[in-house]
Design goal:
This protein has 1 helix and 8 strands. It has 180 residues and is mainly β.
Amino acid sequence: MKINTLFFLLALAFSMPTNAQITKNNWLVGGDVAFSYSKTKPESTVDSQSFTINLTPNVGYFFWDKLALGTRAEYTLSRYKSDSGTSKFDRFLISPFARYYLLNIDKMVNPFLESSYRFSLINENNSREFSAKGGVAIFLNNSVAFEASLIYFNSTSNNTYVGNHTLLLGFGIQVHLEKL
């Protein structure tokens, strides 16, 4: 019974029109918060745990229907603790992005894909990151959308020993401003 109810609610959400402002000449303003937490307790090595949080405001412009190009600023706070010590890492990144909504512009629930190239302006090892983001925008009305997404980062730097792959769960709000 629960599966049938869930299927019905998803089918209803994907079929309801809202006339969202994801059309040419409109603005996208918003941001999201993403986080990750991991804890390892292997039998033969040291125990460790890490926590990362990203705060990301953004602004974009729809040059074509369903396709926005823009930029975001990002602040990352990362903490790592293990039996051998602790470390913390803070950084500020700028990233141009491209976002594409997959369904028609009148859908209340609209999945999207986004990609960006992030680079550090004030970091001593000049980190650079490629990110890919996939998620769903749930339009609360024709201008405001709540978003949930998975975000993948591939990070490199001038230091050959620094680089990683990260997967984050993100939540955000986007405001779609009508054309003037």
